Amino acid sequence: MDLYTFGTPNGHKISIMLEELNVPYNVKKIDILKGDQKSPDFLKINPNGKIPALVDGDTTVFETIAIMIYLADKYGMFLPRAGAARYEVLQWCMFQAAGLAPNLGQFGHFTVFAKEKVPYAIERFSAEVDRLFNVLDQQLAKGTFLVGDDYTIADIATWPWIEGYMSHYKQEIDVKKFPHLKRWYFEIAKRPAVQRGVKIPA
Ligand SMILES: N[C@@H](CCC(=O)N[C@@H](CS)C(=O)NCC(=O)O)C(=O)O
To answer: Looking at the structure, do residues 91 and 23 belong to the same domain, yes or no?
Structure first.
């Protein structure tokens, strides 16, 4: 398998998953700071021009959640094959990709990276991130992981974004407001595969 990636939360979702699966793969670095993701060769792999993407023989998959479902189904790990728990895991994956990631991305852009500080945008995305963290915290109060006591692709998808919030945006998770989120974050940070996955690409 070839993983086209860069050192961002979306890239780390897949490198962590592959490290957890402990299967061989080649890393193809796509430097998004240099614009490699918009090169004609890469656009043939992902017409949306974003990392990550996975090529496995004649199967090419882009969009992180689709890649994670592909890998989970291929290796029979981190996602139940059927039943209510499968859809519970998938619902938290969709929450991550459609809610958490876009809003954290906008939060980071307006609070950390934007040259012009726009108070309305900072307040809007800070409030939404706070609300989403509260949803996660309440869910994590119910069990060890996002869906009960099993570590699944919902956790693997969400963790790198919380890591990015702290490392790229230099923000703290307020332990008084989000004790369960913080406990979950440090629990997963201890996993050797996670520690390897966040270093990819070197
Ligand atoms: N929804 C996509 C998001 C992918 C994404 O936003 N990738 C970012 C890096 S974290 C990227 O490639 N940005 C470069 C660009 O937009 O040109 C997924 O889950 O795969």
So the answer is: no
